[in-house]
Design a protein that fits this description.
11 helices, mainly alpha
Length: 142
């Protein structure tokens, strides 16, 4: 059973427990691939806070655009952050916003890794993560 603290020591308690549940059934190689992909895609709560501050004073909805919530971003943009109430709410709830985004990312990566294990690799020594991201050279598949 891989430990989250070994692969992702920068996570805070709630996120660490959630990720530990996701990777508990993975092999060490899968957990390492998960940690690499997750570290690259997760949003740091402090960066969400920074974008929420910028969203409050300059560009309403910036934090929502950055979290991939395009519709809410436009709503905030055109309503001046829902008359500032939504922007102030996002300032208070920045950790929850980041955790919600990171949960979705973690689920997608874990599902991708587990589905790739069910399918055999087309080449010897080919990583299931690399083949799903398109980083495998064309000569190997020819």
């Amino acid at each position: 059973m891989p430990l989250t603290t070994h692969y992702l020591p920068e996570l805070e308690d709630t996120e660490r427990v959630y990720i530990q549940d996701l990777i508990s059934e993975m092999s060490h190689q899968q957990a390492q691939l998960f940690a690499t992909a997750y570290r690259g895609k997760r949003k740091d709560p402090h960066t969400v806070l920074l974008t929420a501050i910028v969203g409050l004073v300059a560009i309403p909805g910036l934090q929502r655009f950055w979290l991939g919530q395009i519709g809410m971003g436009f709503i905030y943009l055109f309503t001046w952050g829902l008359l500032l109430v939504g922007s102030i709410s996002d300032l208070v709830r920045y950790k929850e916003l980041a955790f919600g985004y990171n949960q979705k990312v973690g689920q997608q990566i874990a599902a991708n890794l587990l589905s790739r294990e069910e399918k055999p690799s087309s080449s010897v020594g080919e990583s299931p993560f690399l083949s799903s991201t398109g980083f495998v050279s064309q000569s190997r598949h020819a």
